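CORE FACILITY INTAKE
Project code: CF-77B
Contact: R.S. (postdoc)
Sample description: multi-component assembly, two entities in total
Requested service: structural model of the whole complex
Turnaround: standard
Below are the sequence entries exactly as provided by the requester. Do not edit them.
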Amino acid sequence: METMLTFLHQHIQIVYIVVLSVFLGIEVIGRVPSVLHTPLMSGANAIHGVVIIGAIIVMGKAEGDNYLALILGFLAVILGTLNVVGGFVVTDRMLEMFKGKKERK
Amino acid sequence: MSISLLSLAYLIGSVTFIIGLKMLSHPASARKGNLIAAGGMAIAIFGTIFLYEEGGQKLHNYGWIFAGLAIGGIVGVMTAKKVKMTAMPEMVSMFNGMGGACAMLISIIEFNHLSGARQALQSLMGAAGFRETYAISGDVDLRGKLLIILLGLIIGSVSFAGSIIAWGKLNGKIKDRSFKNQHIVNLSLLSIVVLISGYMVVVANNVTPDADPGAWFFLELPVLFYVVFLLSLVYGVLFVMPIGGADMPVVISLLNSFTGVAAACGGFLYDNPVMLTGGILVGSAGTILTILMCKAMNRSLKNVLIGSFGGSNAVAGTGDKDQGHFKEISLADAAVVLSYANRVIIVPGYGLAVAQAQHVCHELESLLEEKGVEVKYAIHPVAGRMPGHMNVLLAEADVPYDKLEEMEQANSQFATTDAVLILGANDVVNPAAKNDPSSPIYGMPILEVELAKHVIVNKRSMKPGYAGIENDLFFQPKTSMLFGDAKKVLHELVTEIKQA
């Protein structure tokens, strides 16, 4: 119990960020029209690609002879980039059609 | 200096994610929002590459990093540009799986670092007299870190395996499959994973100086780690496997928020604020989105996840029932019905998406409008394989925004509508959802097309829809069937109307 409290205390800043972000996430997309459900999901999908930063850090810290870390890290960078780039491009393609339609009106 | 710049880059990244998400939830600003978030992401990524340092040390292995970025970037852009609008949902699921896999790999690497550090600690403690020094030097607590690594591993793996299955299901490569009491098996699997992980965290600090028990533990921990890894993958597969296609949107949205949480675990691990905020934002926003979708179907999340669709007894029950007869309609008759109607409502479904018939559908709509027929589209919130799927599809074919009616408005108009044309939709117009409590889709709001004077249903065959249940609508006297591929049938219909 005490260790848990200490842990909480040591990381209180992070815990605050987490708690506030949860509420922010709920607030931000509170009332979204169903038209935008798919693009929104896709956009959120691209944003969690931020995990790539972890992959870059792992990769950049790996020692030259740690092949496991190098290979897995390399894979992680590729997959993370796919998630980010693919996610944003797909979202943009979806939204492009909405925009084009409005301009013609 | 550079490290303070990096903090600024991360701050910008986090803020753009929030603004981006906010703008994505309004039609007018959505595209800009996406670009803003993408820009913030680029700043955060390149900031990390060039500015990150730990203990005064910059990152190295730039060759590898840039090679990875280049490969992922090029493949990502190409697949995303090439994919057809109809295949969008499975593409999102695929990219989501990639993110999950990325989090999973990070956890594996970090665990290897951790167990390396643990081993080193062990040998140090084995050395004579080191025990006291260690005790004085304060606590090296491995538990918190291990917990985060395990969380990232489990959530990432489940998200990865689940997304791949969802992807396979949406493009028809994988069929729904479930066995008896599967949810009990799933739950026990999950509890085993949690128990093993809990055990690992508890014993993580048991670094004894004695060679024998110490050796036993350090052997054991990596083994347990890979057991957890494998079981999580299996759980991901079993979790999505029995869930029917009609519920796939909900599942993808849920897995999306899972990956967000997995990314946030990475943020915890590296004390990285942008990963933390980005991940948690997606985690909570994704959860809310999931709940919104469930609400649109008038079901609870638990019901979607555990009460799997197409349970064998439900299908057998309705399958045996004698449904009576349905009647077919010829193209010429259908053309007449549509051209002499005052108001026509088109109900698009997955069949339209599969047949890529959105353009010819728009052609039909314009043709009818020229003839003075008022044409509207009724969009069920979960029509297709993803919420908003039909909107995206019809937008691609330049169907004007104001022609799309949401479910509530459409339902109030059916009574004054002369003809309803259903294009490859099935479960979303099934009256069983309203009047058959034993039906698996009972309680889901539907488009009440049976209020209209005429219902023309275009389907490829009499096969039941994705939920695997019969549709009484097809056997009602005012309903007539127009069999065939949606694109082909619509083409012929357009030609027929032009001649009339």
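Facility notes:
- The CA atoms of residues 49 and 84 of chain A lie 5 Å apart.
- Chain A is about 80% helix and 0% strand.
Invoice: internal transfer
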